[in-house]
Design goal:
The protein is α/β, with parallel strands linked by helices and about 375 residues long. It has two domains: about 290 residues, 4-Layer Sandwich (Purple Acid Phosphatase, chain A, domain 2); about 40 residues. A six-stranded mixed sheet has the order 3-2-1-10-11-12.
Length: about 375
């Protein structure tokens, strides 16, 4: 073994001791950290710009984002949280996956209200475009990473993490509101119940906690959803889009993250780094804006409340820690050893005193017997 290798091994051992962990075949530093990208509301389209969506530049914006993502080292995967296309046509989906083929990292997605047609409940009337089962089949053919039969699913990318993807879209009425079916709420509760020792990351289109009030964009049964989340104490983060707004809201062990749209101001996406330790979980959010500044400037000028969608600084680049209150602090081995030595010393003193007292009692008894014999 050469000198450099010896030094590296020593440094590794010291680092392990510092973290208070023992090396084993099951342990991996990489398992502790999850690096993901969230892209949302790309709205790929052939249409002209709307009042606030830069649809004519939607493809160029996604191309730019993918080039930027490819330059970021060490990512685990990219998640699209809905509204991948503006209208669910075959051409739009072909454009989306053609651009996505340039991505160097694996990707998955949740579905948004623009991603499939609406079929009115109680009738045969459907809006134009692909129905959700057709979209799901198309996605599975274009993305080999999508190995799930449903529009909601869960998987474990690393030992410390459980990923849950939910489908909050209402497809039997024309609405921008969301809803979680009873089946999905049971699915969510079961997943959380079985993964209380992990950091849970939930992706979905509609946010359960709104970045700002909107009666026609919210989840209708958000109260039931939040009731389930609040039963659990492990770190849980929910990442969503839909509102095109930038917001981070913390509630004890829960983190609600709303991310901006790529196609409207501020034309950005997020990189999320999560590091899980025994007693805490560290979160780091990085905000990546498009490099197409002319498009971003047009988007800003067309947005009435640009600051609302851009968010405060702590809603963009932000780091914080969630302490695991249910984990008892681990005692220092040195302190435990000192405590044991002190206890042993006290026991020795106690034994010595008891022995001395016993001896004094025997001497006194002998002295009394001698005096009685003399009398």
């Amino acid at each position: 073994m050469n000198f450099k290798q010896t030094v590296r091994n020593v440094v590794l051992i010291v680092f392990l001791i510092f973290l208070n962990v023992m090396p084993s075949s099951a342990f991996s530093f990489r398992n502790m950290t999850l690096n993901v990208v969230q892209l949302t509301d790309t709205h790929i389209s052939e249409r002209e710009d709307t009042s606030y969506k830069m649809l004519s530049s939607s493809k160029a914006l996604l191309e730019d984002a993918i080039k930027e993502i490819n330059s970021i080292p060490g990512l685990d995967f990219v998640m699209f949280t809905g509204d991948m296309v503006d209208t669910p046509t075959v051409d739009n989906y072909k454009s989306f996956y053609t651009i996505l083929s340039e991505l160097d990292y694996p990707s998955l997605n949740s579905f948004g209200n623009h991603d499939s047609s609406v079929c009115i409940s109680g009738s045969d009337e459907c809006s134009s475009g692909l129905k959700i089962d057709e979209v799901l089949n198309f996605v599975k053919k274009c993305n080999p990473n999508y190995m799930f039969d449903n529009t909601y699913y869960a998987f474990t990318p690393k030992t410390d993490y459980r990923i849950i993807v939910l489908d909050s879209v209402i497809r039997n009425e024309v609405t921008s509101n969301g809803y979680l079916t009873d089946e999905q709420l049971v699915f969510l509760d079961n997943e959380l119940s079985q993964n209380q020792d992990k950091v849970v990351v939930i992706f979905q289109h509609h946010p359960p906690v709104e970045p700002f009030k909107s009666d026609d964009h919210s989840i209708k049964n958000a109260d039931k959803y939040l009731e389930i989340l609040r039963k659990y104490k492990n770190p849980i983060i929910v990442l969503s889009g839909h509102y095109h707004a930038t917001k981070i809201i913390k509630e004890k062990n829960l983190v609600f993250v709303n991310s901006p749209s790529l196609v409207s101001f501020p034309n950005a996406f997020r990189v999320i780094k999560i590091t899980n330790y025994r007693d805490r979980t560290d979160f780091k959010f990085l905000f990546y804006e498009t490099r197409l500044k002319d498009v971003q400037e047009r988007a800003k000028l067309s947005t009435i409340a640009a600051t609302t969608f851009y968010g405060a600084e702590k809603d963009r680049d932000y780091s914080f820690t969630i302490r695991k209150s249910y984990v008892k602090p681990q005692k220092s081995p040195k302190k435990e050893k000192a405590k044991k030595e002190k206890n042993d010393e006290n026991e020795d003193k106690k034994d010595f005193v008891q022995e001395d007292q016993s001896k004094n009692g025997t001497d006194l008894l002998e002295e009394m017997m001698e005096n009685e014999q003399q009398i």
